[in-house]
Amino acid sequence: MAGIKGLVSLAFAGSIGMTFVILACALPQYKLWWPFFVVLFYILCPIPTMIARRHTDGAGGSNSACMETAVFITMGFLVSSFALPIVLARASVIFWGACYLTLAGNVIVYLTILGFFTIFDMDDSDYAMW
């Protein structure tokens, strides 16, 4: 039962993070949807690590070249999602308030993704059957 509470908490945190990103785009003083492109990074971020885990499950440890490359690509996505709103704000494409809301949403969403993979990575959990 405690696992379901954790999953509900993660869903709530993810929705709070996405609310910040949507507010950065949709508030009347901002009215630009450029910050919403960080959602693409949210989708792409875990993919290299998931592929590398699947590939290195049978042979090799967690320090294989495949896993190291996947972590490098994942960090590239993560840094890009923080850099995009800053670059847009410095270029005066978006307002700094929208940048700050997007950065706050980034922190919350990435902590949620980290929590999700921490919960699902445990082998003794009820979620492992999924």
TrEMBL record:
Subcellular location field: Membrane
Keyword DNA-binding set for record: no
Domain of life per record: Eukaryota
One GO CC term, this protein: endosome
Membrane topology value: Multi-pass membrane protein
Entry annotated with the keyword Transmembrane: yes
Gene Ontology BP term (one): late endosome to vacuole transport via multivesicular body sorting pathway
Keywords: Membrane, Receptor, Transmembrane, Transmembrane helix
Residue stretches in coiled coil: none
Chain ranges passing through the membrane: 7-27, 33-53, 65-88, 94-120
Recorded family membership: Belongs to the OB-RGRP/VPS55 family.
Name the record gives this protein: Leptin receptor gene-related protein
Naturally occurring in which organism (per UniProt): Bombyx mandarina (Wild silk moth)
Source taxonomy: Eukaryota, Metazoa, Ecdysozoa, Arthropoda, Hexapoda
